[in-house]
Amino acid sequence: MNRQAQAVVMLLLGGAIVRASVTDMYLRYVKESLQPFLIAAGVVLIAGAVMTLFYEILRPKPHADEHSHDHGDGKPHREPWVAWLLILPVLGLLLVAPPALGSYAAGQAGTALSSQQISDYPPLPPGDPAKISVLDYASRAVFDKGVSLGDRTVQLTGFVAQGPNGEPILARIILSCCAADGRPIKVGMSGNAPAGLADDTWVEVVGKYTDRTVTDPVNEETIPYVEVETWTQIDPPKQPYE
């Protein structure tokens, strides 16, 4: 791979990053707050590629094969063609849109609730039902024993996954930085729980606190339950992670 080909690959990579960053695609890989950094990185790659191509076009052309170079023995050597494999991840980013982490990832990892413990919980937001995250509900239910939830009705949004007993649970993936460190938060559903839905189906659940819990067999952490009153199937949200 000569320098011009390297510049083309870098141009494609920068363009793919910018394209993903200005659409919702980047939300499947990283947190929303990292968008400006992704755009900046893509622009830098594009600028570097354009400058390299400009230099290569203007500089005098060597007489030797442009795909070869001298190792000091006076004989030209071709660059390894395996370097072209670098273009595969670029094409993957441009042509393939992998789904966000979902029920499979939730089933392979234990609930991450133990790392989210806090000692003081603010009042629930106004409204009936109060719209809170799956993480917020699970934390209040386990570590606050539902005191800060009281008898308020809450609304949670997540995807359906298979629970420890084979029953459907509500789950959501939380990120520290990117999808590579994604961890699930799991909430069991009792009462009028969704039934007959496929894994990864997104739902909005309205219900109240219950002290029922179950142990996650993956890491033996506590999974709280919510007493479901109503639920609605929804389209996957723009931001799939919490």
From TrEMBL:
It comes from the Bacteria. Residues 6-110, 151-241 form the DUF1980 domain. The keyword Membrane applies. The chain crosses the membrane at residues 36-58, 81-101. It holds the Pfam family DUF1980_C. InterPro entries: DUF1980, DUF1980_C, DUF1980_N, UPF0703_membrane_permease. The keyword Transmembrane applies. Keywords: Membrane, Transmembrane, Transmembrane helix. NCBIfam families: TIGR03943 family putative permease subunit. This is Membrane protein. It comes from Phytohabitans houttuyneae.
